[in-house]
Design goal:
mainly beta, Methylamine Dehydrogenase, Chain H, 4-stranded antiparallel sheet, 0% helix
């Protein structure tokens, strides 16, 4: 199931039922009216946030591990196929607009650049790839992790890409050149999720059987630790004051960032 929650009260608003296997990723559209969910049942579903009604289902060839809306909300990206393909969908019609091939194994994370022109993907093949959204062509490959890449994120200014890996590190990359900027070390287990703060100054990372850590992007120094273990998903509120973390223990926790 997909669940919607009221942030101020912590109460459940509604449950969205329709997937027949694990839901691995969810994403709100930029206007907040539509929710996308990707599942191991080989489907991506779009939901009306107000009513909870399913809008449509898009079928893929295998499990979906990641979904992301483009900044304008017109395009949805999905990744996870065992053959390493990425799919772009027209949100209004549900039709495929682009298929990107080049990953050697399943894709666990996708992220759009702020201008919507570039898509980043992180894969079990231990590589991060940047793609041209208009043409579907690969721009470059970023190599350096020693285990699979579980999460990718692009900073709000579009200049920096972060990648989290099961090798217990987060790497920061220069998007324009593809050069590695620095490696963030401190987790005792593999990274499952990373996210930039809305101002781009901080990066949060969640780990399997470890805590949530907050980093200063410019220096690479750890700022603070949030005591929530086995975290598989994290997200900042739009104002950057609150951090949400979801765990294998079935809880979602909200943290005051300061």
């Amino acid at each position: 199931m997909v669940k919607l929650w009221d942030v101020s009260s912590g109460t459940e608003i509604m449950s969205l039922k329709g997937h027949s296997n694990d839901v691995r990723s969810v994403a709100f559209s930029p206007d907040g009216r539509t929710l996308a969910s990707g599942s191991r049942d080989s489907t991506v579903k779009l939901w009306d946030v107000t009513t909870g009604q399913m809008i449509r289902t898009m079928q893929v060839s295998s499990s979906v591990f990641s979904v992301a809306f483009s900044p304008d909300g017109f395009t949805l990206a999905s990744g996870g196929n065992l053959d390493g393909t990425l799919t772009l969908w027209d949100v209004a019609s549900g039709q495929k607009t682009q298929t990107m091939n080049g990953n050697l194994n399943e894709v666990h994370s996708v992220a759009f650049s702020p201008d919507g022109r570039t898509l980043a993907s992180g894969s079990v093949d231990r590589m991060v790839k940047l793609w041209d959204v208009a043409t579907g062509q690969e721009i470059r490959t970023l190599e350096g992790h020693s285990s699979w890449v579980s999460s990718v994120a692009i900073s709000p200014d579009g200049r920096t890409l972060a990648s989290g890996s099961l090798d217990k590190t987060v790497k920061l990359w220069d998007v324009a050149s593809g050069q590695e900027i620095r490696t963030l070390k401190g987790h005792s287990n593999g990274i499952e999720s990373i996210v930039f703060s809305p101002d781009g100054r901080s990066l949060a990372s969640g780990s399997d059987y470890d805590k949530v850590r907050l980093w200063d992007v410019s220096s690479g120094q750890e700022i603070r630790v949030f005591n929530h273990s086995s975290v598989y998903g994290i997200a900042f509120s739009p104002d950057g004051r609150t951090l949400a973390s979801g765990s294998f223990d079935g809880t979602i926790r909200l943290w005051r960032v300061t």
